[in-house]
Amino acid sequence: MNLRTKKELAAHTLKVSPKRVFLNPERLDEIKDALTRADIKALVKDKAIIKKQKKSKSSGRTKKLKQQKSKGKRKGQGSRRGRKTARSKKKEVWMNKVRLQRDYIRQLKEKELLDNKQFRTLYLKIKSGFFRSKAHLKIYLQDLGILKRESKKTE
Asked: Is residue 30 classed exposed, middle or buried when 0-12, 13-18 and 19+ CB atoms within 10 A define those classes?
């Protein structure tokens, strides 16, 4: 019993692929007797012909990956694509560095370790990019004698 044409008719009315059309094996006689599209529509209504659910990819692996990334994992050297500036812009790195250094000298001024003149010169040096980091700024201040070197904890 060949029901290929019926299946194709049903697929056309359901607007899906013939692969997604399921013919109920208990009601094959009714399906065989159907001749017109109206008959097929009636059988779809009676659920003798059913549209199968579309098969899709499982998202389990994706969810697991996303969970790992939310923990901050999978960000090593091998997972990175593009340049360093693709992940963090040069300007943002610069802004963060300068803000950190400016906050630091502001704190020193509030503690009265710096006078206005020293503060101003340091501020301008920070602005011109003289210091690589806050640590570099600290070393510079220690060399000037403004900050005392931190004593070793073993003593």
From this structure: middle
